[in-house]
Amino acid sequence: MRDANGNVLTGYEVIYESADYTPNNRLFSVGHMVYRDITVVKTKDLGAFPSSIYYSKKEAGYTTPFTGTLYLKKAWSQSNGSYEVYYGQYKGTVAAYLG
Description:
The chain is an all-beta fold. The chain is built from no helices and 5 strands. It has a 5-stranded antiparallel beta sheet, with no helix packed on it. It starts with 11 loop residues before the first strand and ends with a strand.
């Protein structure tokens, strides 16, 4: 996973990724663009999370990476006995063009 500048984002785990779909609305079904719904969880030692992250993932068979903005939906903490671990859950829709 990369940000808008191409930097690799670490500590993120994709916990949900839908199958490819094309919306029924013809305005959004331009060319061979497909969409996926994504849910990502970020783990860190401090509790401050950005309100959104840029998602970019290149896959074989697509002419562009899947890209889009994921938004923070919830954050929580959990004690591991000696310190707190913080989690942030991001959700959003990403899109790519088929090859």
